[in-house]
């Protein structure tokens, strides 16, 4: 994979992106704990370059310790654009319901337990993705907007990410972190699958970021 | 006298960024280390005036390195430069004996301020 | 100038609030549906006019918008609506208030600082009404209006899992009209339908709010009683039986009396699935039929 990497970004550029992500995710974790009242631990993020056709297998390899998963997907849209995939281990929705302490849980009808679970995943996913992507974009001097998140609950990990989801000619820059909540024990991964068309802009933005330090 | 500065950070880019923030009109002797263990070893050898220390690093983290360095030299001037901005992390390193904590992304005036303050404190300490 | 016109012309609600929750902008759509003019509400704290909005989720969403420029979404499925507006939908009054799908995001000044947030409100009452109807059709029996067999199977598994997890219990009553074929053959199918509807409505009226009544097949019904032990369920079942037996049913010029046979069983932890419990109830019902009908047989 490293051969592909240097085709897209130089090793200096990868180092810079890595450093910016460390900063962004460090700040996100702190913002998150303020918004959802619990300490969120984000691991040191890492960058990989994966052919879009292999993305399916790649993601599966990273979630194989979970038999069932829930996925929140959200597109981010700025000069920096792509797909955020947040993958939770099975049961995370139920753990997170307690964490959010929402007050509007009366008047729910048949099938409502599932709705509450998926809506909770959506909300936490939206906040988590927003915090990470937003900070990263901010450091690169970009502003992004988001499409409403979508959720897939309790799917078999082996067929949860459809192989034909992404444009086959592209190479995705994958920014991956794993996270866990200090209370509630929900864990998972965040993948940012950045679109190839953002690469030109990304190179320039990284350059500009470094110029502050010359 | 030329000041010795040790920069401990696993990211070469981060080390470069930090160096670029130091005032150009003064003379420094720079030393770099890519993880906590290297940092501790270089500290022993060089006895730098100021050490800039990242926290999350492979082999040995900044947290451990600070403790080791303080064991060697209780007056060590360690400025932590980190992306982890949670209060708990800040408290831990200050308790271990770090002089101050700066948050990434770093800015020139912030680095300059920290440097002056650290040198000041160090010189006062030396006079006593 | 042009943008201001769009603001008031589009058929969706837009409001803007500042970091102190004061209303800065309230478009024409909002004026129409809230009954408040922009002048009435401009500069006013939104919680003064809509106190129910002051809840954890709303405040958390605002915080995430202001602190890191996030977008937030309020789906109709969970939240129903953000602001209580009267529904003007022509599809009947399924809902007390307009069903809304809302989104929220940051607005920045020329220095990229987040100074305000916008809320966009969409009226999704019609879609929600259709969805509600579809859902009803999916789980209800067309003739009697009680739950159908599909929903029984779902509910049974749910209840089975719940009891297994929380070491709780439930009972299942299965009953069947005696000699129903004779009713159809003698008085015709409309009369048969009339009897099925009569039984459904009498039993529906007799059960608690937490119980579920299903039409299982042709003239076969099931009743699921959560948190109910077998002894209590047998008493309930016998009340059903006596009630149906005592009815003089008038159809056209005929007066008919019908009876039901009943099998009752209770959840036990050894059952492998909800279907197992159904089989046991069916067995009990079969015994009730074999041993003379119009009676209650329980099986543990």
What is the arithmetic mean of pLDDT of chain A? 79
Instruction: Return residue spans of chain B where pLDDT drops below 50 for at least 5 consecutive residues.
Output: none
Classify the secondary structure makeup of chain B into a structural class.
alpha/beta
The shape of chain A is globular
Question: So what's the overall shape of chain B?
Answer: globular
Strand content of chain B: 15-25%
Q: What's the total number of strands of chain A?
A: 8
Give Rg of chain B in angstroms: 13 Å
| Main CATH class of chain B | Alpha Beta
User: What is CATH's topology name of chain A?
Assistant: Chemotaxis protein chec
Task: State the gist of this model.
By secondary structure, chain A is of the alpha+beta class.
Polypeptide structure, described:
The complex is a heterotrimer of chains A (214), B (128) and C (300). Chain A is α+β, with helices and mostly antiparallel strands and 214 residues long. In chain A, 44% of the residues lie in helices and 26% in strands. Chain A has six helices and eight strands, in the order ααββαββααββββα. In chain A, strands 1, 2, 3, 4, 5, 6, 7 and 8 form an eight-stranded antiparallel beta sheet that branches. In chain A, helix 2 (11-36) packs across helix 5 (112-139) and helix 4 (92-100) packs across helix 5. The longest helix of chain A has 28 residues, at 112-139. Chain A is globular and about 55 Å long. Chain B is α/β, with parallel strands linked by helices and 128 residues long. In chain B, strand 1 (3-8), helix 1 (12-21) and strand 2 (28-33) form a beta-alpha-beta unit. The longest helix of chain B has 20 residues, at 108-127. Chain B is globular, with a radius of gyration of 13 Å. Chain C is α+β, with helices and mostly antiparallel strands and 300 residues long. Chain C folds into two domains: 2-131, PAS domain (Beta-Lactamase), CATH 3.30.450.20; 140-299, Reverse transcriptase/Diguanylate cyclase domain (Alpha-Beta Plaits). The longest helix of chain C is centred in the middle third of the chain and has 18 residues, at 149-166. The A-C interface holds A 28, 31, 34-36, 100-104, 107, 110, 115-116, 119, 122-123, 126-127, 130-131, 134-135, 138, 143, 145-146, 148-149 and C 55-57, 60, 63-64, 67-73, 75, 77-80, 103, 105, 108, 112, 135, 139, 151.
